[in-house]
Amino acid sequence: AIVLGKFLTLQLQKPLRINDDVVEYWIVKAISSKILDCKVDQLNQLVIVSRHTARVFGMPQWQSLRSKLGVWRGNIANAINTIQANKVTEDGGQGMQGLMIR
C-alpha cells in the first residue's frame, strides 16, 4: 500500500481546530466523504493516509489536470493508431487467405 503520510492524532488537532476527543469522529467523516483513504492506529494514536482529495481546486490543480489529460489523450491516440494498423494488417491478411482458399 502507498503511504502518503503518517500523522499523530495530536498533530491534527491544531490545524483542524478541534479537541482530541473528536479527532477520530472527523477522520471517520473524512473517510465517509471520500476525502481520505487512511487507516487509524488507535493504540499508537496514528493516522496513516494512503490517498486524499483536495478541497481546493486552484490553478496548480488545473495545470496538473491539463497535463494528465494530455498524456491520456496521447495514449488513446497511440492505442487507436495501433488498433487501426492491426486491423489493416488483419483485413489484408484475411483477404489474401480468402483468395487462396477459393
Number of domains: 2
Number of strands: 3
* Separate helix tally: 3
CATH architecture descriptor text of the largest domain: Orthogonal Bundle
Order of strands, main sheet, comes to 1-3-2
**Beta-strand fraction estimate:** 15-25%
CATH topology of the largest domain: Arc Repressor Mutant, subunit A
Question: Helix and strand layout, with pairings?
Answer:
Blueprint: E1 5-8, H1 9-16, H2 23-32, E2 36-41, E3 46-52, H3 59-101
Antiparallel strand pairs: 1-3, 2-3
Summarize the structure.
With 102 residues, this protein is of the alpha+beta class. It is 60% helix and 17% strand. The chain has two domains: 5-52, Winged helix-like DNA-binding domain superfamily/Winged helix DNA-binding domain (Arc Repressor Mutant, subunit A); 57-102.
Report on the structure:
The chain folds into 2 domains: 5-52, Winged helix-like DNA-binding domain superfamily/Winged helix DNA-binding domain (Arc Repressor Mutant, subunit A), CATH 1.10.10; 57-102. It is elongated, with a radius of gyration of 26 Å. It has a 3-stranded antiparallel sheet. The chain contains 3 helices and 3 strands, in the order βααββα. A hairpin with a 4-residue loop joins strand 2 and strand 3 (46-52). Residues 95-102 have low confidence and may be disordered. By secondary structure, it is an alpha+beta fold. Belongs to the CSN7/EIF3M family. CSN7 subfamily. It holds the Pfam family PCI. Residues 55-83 form the eIF3 subunit M C-terminal helix domain.
